[in-house]
Design a protein that fits this description.
Elements (H helix, E strand, L loop, with lengths): L4 H10 L1 H17 L7 E6 L2 H4 L8 E7 L15 E4 L11 E7 L8 H11 E12 L21 H10 L2 E11 L12 H10 L2 H4 E10 L5 H21 L1
Parallel strand pairs: 1-2, 1-4, 2-3, 4-5
Antiparallel strand pairs: 5-7, 6-7
Length: about 240
């Protein structure tokens, strides 16, 4: 099953589980991320449920939605800043974005490395990447009643390796969206019970999402590195000669 834009909008807007999901992920986002004033944030996938509160906090917020998924006009309260894009070609200037947020983007990507390379390209040096992916080990990835049960889920190692391959330095990762993927309001409204269960069992089973905060790594040009090393060798040889 594949969640297209209509399914995603209905899940987050019309179901109690979707609304609780957005609330839980928003709290995680606030925990991972404190910046915003005077900056630009770019969302990829279906990030509008999390970006909405940041419209006033950021200087500029833009939502990129993949072609396979479809797009909607967003936000409803002002001019549209939602763009339908190819995952490999973002209509965004290089090194122009402070923060990139990805939600429901990697699981259905045709080429995750290319997608993340685009995120790396548009980020400013040391810019922040925030990635939310379906947790492979959790119950949420095993049912298709939510978007997290569709596409390719990830383990900690898988998402970490993917980010390292695309030149991101991982700063923090955690499990979130704890509970059961059910419309039953009781399932996510008993924090003491959930905490008890999480302590008794593998926490991964009850966590629907892996959240990762990473930064764009900048490498020195090879020639500069070679010149620096060469200079060090010459200095060492010179000092030995004087002795």
């Amino acid at each position: 099953m594949y969640f297209d834009i209509k399914d995603l909008v209905e899940f987050y807007s019309d179901t109690s589980l979707g609304k609780r999901t957005a609330s839980s992920l928003s709290k995680t986002l606030n925990h991972l991320f404190k910046s915003g004033k005077g900056e630009m944030i770019l969302g990829y996938g279906f990030t509008t449920p999390l970006l909405e509160p940041y419209l006033e906090r950021f200087e500029k917020a833009v939502s990129l939605m993949p072609g396979l998924q479809g797009a909607i006009n967003w936000p409803k309260s002002s001019n549209n800043v939602s763009i339908l894009v190819d995952e490999a070609f973002w209509p965004v200037e290089t090194e122009s974005v402070d923060t990139v947020l990805i939600l429901h983007g990697l699981e259905n990507s045709l080429n995750p490395n290319v997608l993340l390379s685009e995120a790396w390209r548009v980020l400013k040096p040391n810019g922040t990447l925030l990635v939310f992916v379906s947790n492979r080990a959790g119950f949420w990835a095993r049912t298709d009643i939510t978007p997290f049960g569709c596409g390719r889920p990830y383990s900690f190692n898988q998402i970490s390796n993917l980010l390292k391959q695309t030149n991101f330095a991982i700063e923090q990762n955690l499990l979130t969206l704890n509970g059961f993927p059910t419309e039953n309001n009781m399932a996510l409204s008993l924090p003491n019970v959930m905490t008890y269960l999480l302590n008794l069992t593998k926490v991964e089973l009850f966590s629907g999402v892996i959240a990762v905060k990473a930064s764009k790594k900048i490498f020195a040009p090879e020639k500069l590195v070679a010149d620096y090393l060469s200079l060090g060798v010459r200095k060492l040889s010179s000092s030995r000669g004087v002795a």
